C-alpha cells in the first residue's frame, strides 16, 4: 500500500510540476503577444490623435473617439488571441506527453468524471494505442476505495475525437475529449485568465 501511495504521490507531484511548467510557458507567450498588442494599440491611438488635433474641434473629437475605439478593439482582439494561445499551449503539452504521463493524466480525468463507477469508456483510435491498459484496473481499484462500484470497462468502440474519452452509461454520454475540456475551461475561466494576464489595463 505504501508503494501505491508513493507512486500516487509521485504522479500527482509530476502532474503539478507539468501544470506549472505549462502555465509558465503559456504566460510567457501571452506576455509577448500582449506587449506587441499594447504597442500597436498605442501607436494607432497616438497617430490618430495627432491627426485629429490638426482638424476642427468636431472632427477632432470624432477621430479621437474612433482612435480610442480602434485601440480598445485591437487590445480586446489581442487578449482573445493570448487566451487562445495559452489554452493551445496547454493542449499541445498534453498531446506531447509521454505515454506514461498521459496515461496518468487520463486516469486522473476518469476519476474526476466518473459518477457511479460502472460506466463504459470509449477512446479515440490514437488513445487506444497510447494509454496503458492498466489504467482501467487502477481506476476501478481507486473507485472501490472511494465507495463507488469500480466496474468501469473499456469498450472496443472508438470515437472520432483527437484525445481524451467519452463516458457512456445507458443512453447518456459525457464528452471528456481534450478539445471539449479545453472549451469548457475557456468558457469558465476566460474572464479570470484575462484578468490575470492583463492586470491594470
From TrEMBL:
Classification via SUPFAM superfamilies: V-type ATPase subunit E-like
Pfam families: vATP-synt_E
Keywords: ATP synthesis, Coiled coil, Hydrogen ion transport, Ion transport, Transport
Coiled-coil annotated residue ranges, if any: 12-54
Any one of the GO CC terms: proton-transporting two-sector ATPase complex, catalytic domain
Organism superkingdom: Bacteria
GO biological process assignments: proton motive force-driven plasma membrane ATP synthesis
Keyword Transmembrane: no
Gene Ontology molecular function terms on file: ATP binding; proton-transporting ATP synthase activity, rotational mechanism; proton-transporting ATPase activity, rotational mechanism
Protein's UniProt keywords contain Transport: yes
HAMAP family: ATP_synth_E_arch
Function: Produces ATP from ADP in the presence of a proton gradient across the membrane.
UniProt family annotation: Belongs to the V-ATPase E subunit family.
Protein name: V-type proton ATPase subunit E
